[in-house]
Amino acid sequence: xxxxxxxxxxKRYGANTVIHGVxxxxxxxxxxxxxxxxxxGKSTLLRMIAGLEPITEGEIEIGGRVVNELEPKDRDxxxxxxxxxxxxxxxxxxxxxxxxxxxGASKAEIAGRVHWAADILGLGALLQRRPGQLSxxxxxxxxxxxxxxxxxxxxxxxxxxxxxxxxxxxxxxGEIKGLHQRLGxxxxxxxxxxxxxxxxxxxxxxxxxxxxxxxxxxxxxxDRPANLFVAGFIGSPAMNFIPGPAMGQGxxxxxxxxxxxxxxADGGLAGRVRLVEPLGSDTQITCxxxxxxxxxxxxxxxxxxxxxxxxxxxxxxxTHRFEASTGVRL
Length: 330
What we know:
This protein is of the alpha+beta class and 330 residues long.
């Protein structure tokens, strides 16, 4: 296990800067998720940690050692990709043990490590199969097993669940989190899915346009987003943004209210119902408030139909204020 330090890291492709001097500290044994929209630089940053992309400026330290000039094989990391990258002609057992074989490990050591990882991931009955005989979830477990057998200081995951269907993604999220709890190894995980980030991470790094917007726990990001970008990115459905004057605030203020923080009560915003979405015991309602779309989520059944007018009042103490010009939290 090892801590990872990212210090003032810059990445340029010619005249184009894609990472703008980012810094982050990842503690030994921590599960950190890099999250942000497509093209924000999160995968590029992960690849620089892995040594697959050179660093233009700054430094990356793994286990107290600056690794800028080290080859990936010398960084004591293991990476799991979204496309699994398994050898189709090899059995599961051979795929999992290949890196150890390449390093010259003995047959006994390879067999021991592979069967240990297979037991953890429930692959014991599949060791003699080939990747083409496996489901997507099983292939992803094999890719994880191949990383585990190396016993690295740091695991790196690059959107490993993006090729799986929604139900299997939920299952695999739990498996990866359980794997971290069992191994206690430092993990850095990239995803564009903020739900994935919030349910898995000890700490989340929110990125946008090659910069870090905020670092914190899921609760910290949800309760006190640093700016409009984080407020709108973290949480599902997304936070509503309302001009200050409509909320009795100043003209330079934007007020944020999460969908679940509205109540139907007198003295609220007059919203004309556009869409009602029953979600079992919950009800999600989309309203038009003077041309602004407002989404409200109620943890009960609400009898409303399109065309109705509802008075939507934010719950006391559950609004967020941002400077409209900069987006910074006030």
